[in-house]
Design a protein that fits this description.
With 96 residues, this protein is an all-alpha fold. It contains four helices and no strands. The chain is elongated.
Length: 96
Amino acid sequence: MALLFGGAGMGIFVSGMLGGYGALMAELYPTEARATAENILYNAGRALGSMGPLVVGFLVNKYSFFIGTVFLAGLYILDLIVTAAFIPERKGQPLR
């Protein structure tokens, strides 16, 4: 039951993260490079993310389900911190 409800909660946050991705990237890149930049960044993230089940499965097998889940949640928290620290705020600025 914990996996069912915990997985559903994580899924909601992942969907929300992807929902804001297009709007954020559209503000950061000029029109001429926007599609290319978004596709490269999105697909690079997918390529790295495809290793997630392997890494989490390894952690669960070697340590415990709790450690695997904490590792995955930690990645989301790290993403939030890195995004807040390094993505510039564009509110009120003209688009290029």
